[in-house]
Design goal:
The chain is 4% helix and 41% strand. The chain is globular and about 60 Å long.
Length: 449
C-alpha cells in the first residue's frame, strides 16, 4: 500500500504484525494500539501495549515479539466485532527503544485475516530519520464498515509523546531531594515511589512481571537549588511550555523554545467541511452531505546563498531533508486527522542555510474556498516545546492561505503566524498568488500530481 491509501478489511478477526530487520546497532521496538473516540482515548485503559496487553472489551490483545532469521515481529490480535460503539478508530503504532527509526531497517505493518492467514494489507514505511515513534496504520469506521489506512506518521517524542498526543496520562514519579539524617544508626528502607497515574512506559531495564513499571529516578541526584530559587521538593525539571500564537502575540523564537537542532515537523490538520443539502422527512431532520477536501501543504524557501524554490506535491517537488533545500514534504493526506493531516519536516541542523521559509496551503480539489474549514497548524521541534495556532475564519472566496513565515534573525529562526487568506486573480495560480504577496520572484509553470 502507498502512504495515505486505504482498503476494506476482509473480516473482523485480524492479526496485525509490525516487523523490521534486526542487526548490530538496531534499537529494539514495540508495537501498541490506541482505541479512539473522535481524536482521543476515552481513558488510559484504551492504550494497549506491553504493560497493558489487553483491552477490557477484548477487541485488542498484544501478543508480544518473535525473532527468527534476523527478522523481528511484534503482533496484536484485533477483533473489530468487539470494538465498542463509541470507538471509531484503532490506531496502530510502533516505538523505538534506545535509538531512532532511522536505525531500524525494513519497518512494515501487515494485516492478516486471522482465520485464513491471508494478507489483507501491507505497508512498508520508509524514509525515517530522527523519529522514535510511528503511527503505521489505523482501522477506522466508514459508513458502518471497517477499513485499514496506511498512515506512516512519525514522532520524535517517543512512545510517551505519542501516547500523550492521544490523551494518555503519562507521569513520572516525583523524587524528593536528599533525605534528612535519621536518628537511628541503621537507616530504614526507602519507601517505594508513588504509583503512576496512567500506564507506565518501559525503561531500558527489563520490566518485572507485575502490571506496571514506574520510570526510574535519574542516575545522578540533582543538586539542590539555591535558596533564592528554591522549588518544592518533588517538582519535575522545568521545560518550555507550548506556545500558542495569536494576533496579539504572533511570533516566537524557536531557539527560546529549545528548537535549535534536530528536525522541526510542521503539521496541518483540519475538520471535514459539512454542507447541508436540505431538510426532509416528517421530523424535519437535516441531512448532511460530507465533502472530502484535498488540501496541499507547501513551502516556499529562500536559502542563504540566494537559491529559491518550492516544496509541494504538485510536480513531485517533495524536497529533501539532508540536501538542499533541507525541507521534505512527508506525503499527501486527504483526511485532515489530528495525528496525520499534512506534514512537512525542516532540518534544523541546517538552520543557518535558511533565509526564510513560507509555509502555505492550497485547496487542490473538493472545495472552492476555505469557508467553514476548522484548521490548526502545529510546529513541533525535536528538541523543545511545540508552537501552534488556529486559522481564522475565512470570509472570502480564498483557495490559498499563507500559514507561517519562518525567518532567520540574529542567527535564530523566528516563527511568525500569518493565517492570511489570499484570492488569486483570474487565471493566476494559488502558488503564483502567494509568490506575489510575499515577493519571492519565481517563474511558474503548470504542474500536476
Amino acid at each position: 500500500m502507498a502512504k495515505g491509501s486505504n482498503t476494506p478489511v476482509p473480516s473482523t478477526a485480524l492479526r496485525v504484525e509490525m516487523g523490521w530487520r534486526s542487526g548490530p546497532g538496531v534499537p529494539d521496538a514495540d508495537g501498541s494500539a490506541l482505541l479512539l473516540a473522535g481524536r482521543k482515548v476515552r481513558s488510559d485503559a484504551d492504550f494497549v501495549f506491553y504493560n497493558q496487553p489487553e483491552h477490557a472489551s477484548g477487541a485488542v490483545r498484544h501478543l508480544g515479539k518473535h525473532t527468527a532469521g534476523g527478522a523481528v515481529t511484534d503482533a496484536l490480535v484485533v477483533d473489530l466485532a468487539r470494538v465498542e460503539p463509541g470507538v471509531d478508530r484503532v490506531v496502530l503504532a510502533a516505538s523505538a527503544d534506545g535509538g531512532t527509526f532511522g536505525q531500524v531497517p525494513g519497518l512494515y505493518i501487515e494485516v492478516r485475516d486471522e482465520a485464513h492467514g491471508t494478507v489483507a494489507a501491507r505497508f512498508d514505511s520508509t524514509g525515517a530519520t530522527a523519529e522514535t515513534a510511528f503511527v503505521l496504520g489505523e482501522f477506522y469506521r466508514r459508513q458502518g464498515a471497517w477499513k485499514f489506512r496506511a498512515v506512516g506518521q512519525g514522532y520524535s517524542s517517543g512512545l510517551e509523546g505519542l501516547a500523550t498526543d492521544f490523551g494518555i496520562t503519562v507521569s513520572e514519579p516525583q523524587h524528593a531531594g536528599p533525605p534528612a539524617p535519621a536518628a537511628p544508626p541503621a537507616p530504614s528502607p526507602a519507601a517505594p515511589p508513588p504509583p503512576l497515574t496512567g500506564p507506565a512506559l518501559r525503561t531500558p531495564a527489563p520490566p518485572p512481571t507485575g502490571p506496571a513499571v514506574p520510570l526510574p529516578p535519574p542516575v545522578a541526584p540533582r543538586a539542590p537549588a539555591p535558596p533564592t530559587a528554591a522549588a518544592p521538593q518533588g517538582t519535575a525539571p522545568v521545560r518550555p511550555a507550548k506556545v500558542t500564537l495569536t494576533k496579539a502575540a504572533p511570533s516566537v523564537s524557536l531557539a527560546k523554545q529549545g528548537g535549535t537542532s534536530g528536525v522541526l515537523r510542521v503539521n496541518l490538520n483540519w475538520q471535514m467541511r459539512t454542507q447541508f443539502s436540505g431538510w426532509g422527512g416528517k421530523s424535519g431532520r437535516a441531512f448532511a452531505q460530507h465533502t472530502d477536501l484535498d488540501l496541499d501543504l507547501c513551502a516556499l524557501y529562500e536559502l542563504s546563498d540566494g537559491r529559491k524554490g518550492v516544496v509541494q506535491a504538485l510536480g513531485n517537488a517533495f524536497g529533501s531533508l539532508h540536501h538542499p533545500p533541507y525541507i521534505h514534504l512527508d506525503g499527501d493526506d486527504r483526511t485532515g486527522a489530528v495525528d496525520t493531516g499534512e506534514n512537512l519536516t525542516v532540518n534544523l541542523d541546517h538552520r543557518h542555510d535558511f533565509r526564510r521559509i513560507l509555509v502555505f496551503v492550497t485547496i487542490y480539489e473538493g472545495a472552492r474556498s476555505f469557508a467553514d474549514l476548522h484548521a490548526t497548524v502545529t510546529l513541533r521541534p525535536q528538541h523543545g516545546a511545540p508552537v501552534d495556532f488556529a486559522l481564522d475564519e475565512c470570509t472570502i472566496p480564498s483557495p490559498v492561505c499563507a500559514l507561517a513565515l519562518i525567518t532567520r534573525s540574529g542567527g535564530e529562526l523566528v516563527v511568525q503566524r500569518e493565517a492570511r487568506y489570499l484570492v488569486p486573480d483570474r487565471g493566476v495560480s494559488p502558488q503564483r498568488t502567494v509568490d506575489r504577496a510575499y515577493g519571492w520572484g519565481m517563474n511558474w509553470t503548470p504542474g500536476r500530481k
